[in-house]
Amino acid sequence: MSLAELQALERDYAIPTYARNPVEFVRGSGCRLWDADGNEYLDLLAGISVLNVGHCHPRVVEAVQRQTEQLMHATNLYYTAPALRLSAALAQSSLGGKVFLCNSGAEANEAAIKLVRRARPGGRIVVVEGGFHGRTYGALSATPQESKQAPFAPLVPGFVVVPKRPEALAGAVDESTAAVLLEPIQGETGIHVLSDELLEAARAACDRVGAALVFDEIQTGMGRTGTLWAYEQAPVVPDALTSAKALGGGLPVGALVTGPRLADVFEPGDHGSTFAGGPVTASAALVALELCSDPGLLSRVQSLGARLLSGLRSLPFTDVARGRGLMLAIDLKPGTPAPELARRALLEQRLVVNATGPGTIRFEPPLIISEAEIDEALERLARLAP
Ligand code: PLP
Predict the structure, then answer these.
(1) Residue (of 40, 105, 94, 41) closest to 223 by Cα position
(2) How far apart are CA 149 and CA 127, in angstroms?
(3) Which of 17, 59, 235, 262 is most exposed, with minimal Cβ within 10 Å?
(4) Are the beta carbons of 330 and 342 closer than 8 angstroms?
């Protein structure tokens, strides 16, 4: 089927929620993708921080194949080993409490929102401007972006938005607050690292009133910033975190992970999801989590990130480069529209990158990228200079 035929199918049958680029990908391996004409691309986006272990990692593929031949679904009315082994691995790798598995980032945040309200009935949830937590109603209500929220009002009540100032955050938290929910590094709005002072203020305010501090690690987790979880580089530890994206190694898996204090808030019947913790996706996630926990990989993410960041900084169209580990972005000098540059990168240089806004391009390559591939990407990017 040609690209034109696919575009006709999209036009006639796909509800138009995506602005797609005119490329059909048919194969992926490591940091490379191939289109239907056999052209090879270097992937600096990893499916928006999903393919942290690379495309079609052989161990993920093998785990999926093995499990698919054995048992694909049983429902959570019965025991299956992959889900419970994954829950244990997640809890042991982070906050030491308990885990609710689900199928996406938005669902993980929905679970977190319900959990903190269950712990403090009717409680308000404080979120930070510039945050993104997903598109379902609870997650959308926690996402203070006018363009995403306004067409879908009324939203879920009880969310309070604060600017990125420690005193503003502290002032918004009181005895009626169930939680502060934030991304330690805001991804969708352009890779903005929240300051240590803001995170400390959030921790102190939550401690003062007995509210829960929840980190959305859906984009920052799974080794993306050079530690398995971004909170490991923060001055504070959250009471719960949410994960998804790279957790499934390319398959849809999400998780709410609690610390001990929130571990037993939910009771049977409070929450659930048919496909959550299915044996195939959980088997993939077990492998992905093991691969992303490798100390050698994590220290490489830090050195590779530094190499990419310094190269991005010296590109002729870069105004500001920022980020942590392999979660990076550049703001472009005035006059260069980011969506156009991202499109040229794709079509002229066969580089997959993403514009997060009119002036910002984000770089989140697979964590297994090599020095040579980073240098190759930088050379190709430099060729886009006007
Ligand atoms: N939270 C963060 C920080 C995200 O980056 C995303 C997705 O981009 C989500 C939540 C929503 O995840 P999903 O698209 O899997 O629902």
Answers:
(1) 94
(2) 14
(3) 17
(4) no
Which residue, judged by its Cα, is nearest atom 13 of ligand 1? Answer: 105
Mutation probe of ligand 1 site: the residue of 49, 219, 281 with most atoms within 8 A of C-beta? 219
Tell me the CA–centroid distance for residue 69 and ligand 1, in Å: 30
- Taking the CA of residue 252 as reference, the ligand 1 atom at the shortest distance is 15
Task: Write down the pTM of the prediction.
Answer: 0.98
Rounded to an integer, the average pLDDT of 176-205 is: 98
Write down the number of H helices and E strands in the chain: 13, 17
Please check whether residue 180 is in contact with residue 126, taking contact to mean a CB–CB distance below 8 angstroms: yes
Rounded to the nearest angstrom, the distance between the alpha carbon of 246 and the centre of ligand 1 is 11
Q: How far, in Å, is the centroid of ligand 1 from the Cα of 121?
A: 25
Report the separation in Å between the CA atom of 184 and the middle of ligand 1, taken as the mean of its atom positions.
Answer: 13
- Alpha carbon of 4 to those of 8, 121, 140: distances in Å? 6, 53, 34
Residue 106 CA to ligand 1 centre (angstroms) = 6
In a 3-state reduction of DSSP, which class is residue 302? helix
Residue 386 pLDDT > 90: no
Q: Once rounded to an integer, what is the mean pLDDT over residues 333-357?
A: 97
Quote the pLDDT of residue 291: 98
pLDDT in tens, 57-71: 999 999 999 999 999
Nearest protein Cα to ligand 1, atom 10: 133
Ligand 1 neighbours, Cβ below 6 Å, are 48, 104-106, 109, 132-134, 183, 187-188, 216, 218-219, 244
SS3 21: coil
Within 10 angstroms of residue 204's Cβ, the number of other Cβ atoms is: 15
The torsion angles phi and psi of 241, rounded to 5 degrees, stand at -140, 155
Q: Give the mean model confidence (pLDDT) for residues 15-29.
A: 97
* DSSP collapsed to 3 states, 119-177: HCCCCEEEEECCCCCCCCHHHHHCCCCHHHHHHHCCCCCCEEEECCCHHHHHHHCCCCE
Residue 133 Cα to ligand 1 midpoint, Å, equals: 6
Return the amino acid letter for 217.
E
* Listed residue (335, 331, 378) closest to 357, CA to CA: 331
Rounded Cα gap, residues 212 and 215, in angstroms: 10
DSSP letter (8 states) at residue 117: H
- Counting Cα atoms < 13 Å in the Cβ hemisphere of 243 gives 30
